[in-house]
């Protein structure tokens, strides 16, 4: 594997670490505890529009496509910010980038509580999406400073921050009902500032200061910006960086899109109130978070490369079943007409979602551990690429869900699209397998 030039060079993650330079135990503890909190808050902020959808659509007189575009804005900005922020975290420290991105979301949370026009909400959503820099930087931070023996488990705990969507499901409907929806965005200002303060006080980047020689002639020449950009483009042209990132992006993007879409879907399909729909959506997010921890822990024990095939096949079956809309069928029998009617009950629908959520979480946790294992010295690049692809996929899904439902008139069109997308993803996996197994480092 090629190494980064000059300042981009990092030691492989699996390389032995000298005892004197090994991070102290408290550092790993701080990393594992604070980073998922930051992740959870960013996800909670992203689900603001989804949980407050009824009020926003009524106040702004939004149609389905307009509201879907509003849901997609944080994902789009987050996708564009992920890779650059991951690379910045590698050069300047994950804690600094996480701290900056968390503080950056605060004015946009305040803006949402004061906005009155659709364009304002769109721009505020783009601002919230910049918080994805905290996700990408946190990934680099945990991979670098987390406990080496339990890298998969620590990455799984970090990914379990996706359960922050459940925080919105629990709190926002109550706050909106009691005090009005405009107070709901302000609810997150204090936790964001608190976690930022904890990162500032108790965390560190673990960087060893580099003492540069005073003599300019003895100082090594740094590559120019053009050289660094060309090198980055060359690295991104390597298929080995994409092979796991593409599969991860499906699970990540599908979860984010479903977390945003589920409250509205349950309200429309089962006639639930906003508060009830948000509560019924909570088990799905908890299942994905638990699956992340399980998948990461399993990947620590053995090389679960084949696990992605089994997980993808299981999720494919779940999506196939979830794609069935309510329907009636009449059969001309010998003794008269038979009428069959199918409509998935709420408990059956949620049971499938929870089972699929556990599998999706296991896929994300195990794949991120494999990325960490195969690309220890390029975790920022490959992990940032995976989050970028996942964010773009998540931004595409809300409009596709709405347009598919309107054009086909089928409420489960979103699951049909996810089914087709996973089939394409599995074909890419087959093509990758046909290229031959990757040579171990």
TrEMBL record:
Keyword Protease: no
Residue span(s) of domain Major facilitator superfamily (MFS) profile: 28-437
Annotated region described as Disordered, given as residue ranges: 1-21
Annotated Gene3D superfamilies: MFS general substrate transporter like domains (1.20.1250.20)
Membrane topology: Multi-pass membrane protein
Gene Ontology terms for molecular function: nitrate transmembrane transporter activity
A biological process term (GO) from this entry: nitrate assimilation
Keyword line: Membrane, Nitrate assimilation, Transmembrane, Transmembrane helix
Residue spans crossing the bilayer: 29-54, 60-81, 93-112, 118-143, 155-174, 186-203, 241-262, 307-327, 347-367, 379-401, 407-431
Transmembrane helix among keywords: yes
Pfam family, one: MFS_1
PROSITE patterns in alphabetical order: MFS
Family as reported in the entry's similarity comment: Belongs to the major facilitator superfamily. Nitrate/nitrite porter (TC 2.A.1.8) family.
Classification via PANTHER family: HIGH-AFFINITY NITRATE TRANSPORTER 2.3 (PTHR23515)
Protein name as annotated: MFS transporter, NNP family, nitrate/nitrite transporter
